[in-house]
């Protein structure tokens, strides 16, 4: 079982012995794919995702005359929250791009995704409200922004189950997330991204190679040390001895990132980053019901649940002094705790 991932995804494409570094793809370049690897333009399907549409419609319909509230306290300012990580910075840290490569194996993954483009379009569509903040969080820890597509490769950007990053319970708890019968913060796109960023930064600090960090993410920190002892800290030498699931994850990750950088050329509708969520953070006492929080925020319990997918019950965890909820920003609160 991987230390970072909660499940082992099956292969979408058979894995061959192809070297992982054949061509480094620059962010703004568009190398042509020859022969069968050059997919035709595929009309992207406008996916109807009720949860996302409900959120955006509710925020858009908010009363424009309502008082614009100042930002409420962040998690760092709420007593009892996790200590600030040594990797976290107030401003994004400039990071070298992830070394995306396009070899025959990755090309096959690209083709497989494009042959079923509706599913990938749905994933981009689901992620659109969250991507700007997720990329900002990655940047605060010095993690390349392309790592957001690792969540796509892990889960298809699902907020349910173990969440976008498919973190194990032990990893989530190690980095300060709550996972209990009331809440599973692995399902929160922002909180889980903070943990993913800190975990990836921790791995990179140990192995000094983002590809090896993904290996550690998928196989566990103990396993990556075993691979290093056998092959040294050289990804090229290590690649052929990696588990099939790890090579598959790397190839899916690079394929999705490559498509994201060339979405228009492939006929894939890009995520509309301008549709990111606007919200306030509302600390409420432990045990507060969703209905009570909704009344305070002049919104509905359904929208509170949609903005807070970590909630498993009709109330926040009772065993904490304060619990922070996301609520629509353009709302006038009756009162605050």
Describe the protein:
The structure is a single chain. This protein is mainly alpha-helical. 41% of the residues lie in helices and 4% in strands. The protein has helices at 50-60, 104-115, 117-127, 131-140, 148-155, 169-174, 189-207, 210-219, 221-231, 235-238, 244-261, 263-266, 290-296, 301-307, and strands spanning 279-285, 322-328. It has a two-stranded antiparallel ribbon. Helix 4 (131-140) runs parallel beside helix 7, helix 5 packs across helix 11 and helix 13 packs across helix 14 (301-307). Residues 7-83 and 331-337 have low confidence and may be disordered.
Number of helices: 14
Write down how many β-strands occur, each being a DSSP E stretch of 2 or more residues: 2
Specify the structural class.
Answer: mainly alpha
CATH architecture of the largest domain: Orthogonal Bundle
Principal-axis shape equals globular
Percent of residues in helical segments?
Answer: 40-55%
Strand order within the widest sheet? Answer: 1-2
What order do the SSEs take from the amino end to the carboxyl end, as H and E?
HHHHHHHHHHHHEHHE
Taking the alpha carbons of the first and last residues, their distance comes to 42 Å
Biggest beta sheet attributes: 2 strands, antiparallel
Radius of gyration: 21 Å
Kindly give the count of domains.
2
- Briefly note the CATH topology name of the largest domain: Lysozyme
Attribute tags:
mainly alpha, Membrane-bound Lytic Murein Transglycosylase D, Chain A, two-stranded antiparallel ribbon, globular
Nutshell version of this structure?
This protein is mainly alpha-helical and 337 residues long. It has two domains: 1-6 and 95-277, Orthogonal Bundle (Lysozyme), CATH 1.10.530.10; 278-337, Membrane-bound Lytic Murein Transglycosylase D, Chain A (Roll), CATH 3.10.350. Helices cover 41% and strands 4% of the residues.
């Amino acid at each position: 079982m991987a230390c970072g991932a909660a499940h082992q995804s099956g292969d979408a494409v058979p894995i061959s012995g192809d070297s992982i570094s054949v061509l480094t793809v620059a962010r703004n370049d568009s190398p042509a794919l020859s022969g069968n690897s050059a997919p035709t333009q595929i009309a992207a399907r406008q996916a109807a995702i009720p949860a996302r549409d409900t959120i955006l419609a509710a925020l858009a319909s908010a009363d424009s005359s309502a008082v614009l509230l100042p930002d409420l306290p962040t998690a760092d300012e709420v007593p009892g929250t996790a200590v600030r990580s040594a990797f976290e910075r107030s401003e994004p840290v400039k990071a070298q791009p992830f070394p995306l490569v396009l070899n025959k194996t990755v090309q096959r993954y690209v083709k497989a995704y494009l042959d079923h483009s509706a599913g990938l379009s749905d994933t981009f569509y689901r992620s659109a409200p969250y991507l700007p903040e997720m990329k900002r969080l990655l940047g605060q820890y010095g993690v390349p922004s392309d790592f957001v597509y690792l969540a796509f490769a892990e889960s298809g950007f699902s907020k349910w189950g173990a969440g976008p990053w498919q973190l194990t319970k032990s990893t989530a708890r190690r980095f300060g997330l709550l996972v209990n019968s009331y809440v599973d913060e692995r399902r929160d796109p922002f909180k889980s991204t903070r943990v993913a960023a800190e975990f990836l930064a921790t791995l990179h600090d140990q192995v000094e190679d983002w590809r090896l960090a993904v290996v550690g993410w998928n196989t566990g920190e103990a396993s990556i040390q075993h691979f290093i002892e056998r092959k040294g800290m050289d990804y090229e030498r290590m690649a052929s001895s990696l588990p099939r699931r790890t090579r598959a994850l790397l190839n899916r990750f690079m394929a999705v990132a490559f498509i994201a950088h060339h979405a228009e050329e492939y006929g894939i509708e890009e995520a509309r980053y301008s549709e990111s969520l606007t919200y306030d953070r509302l600390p409420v006492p432990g045990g507060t019901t969703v209905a009570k929080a909704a009344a305070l925020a002049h919104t509905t319990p359904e929208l509170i649940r949609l903005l807070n997918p970590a909630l498993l019950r009709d109330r926040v965890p009772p065993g904490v002094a304060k619990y922070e909820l996301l609520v629509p920003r353009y709302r006038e609160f009756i009162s605050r705790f």
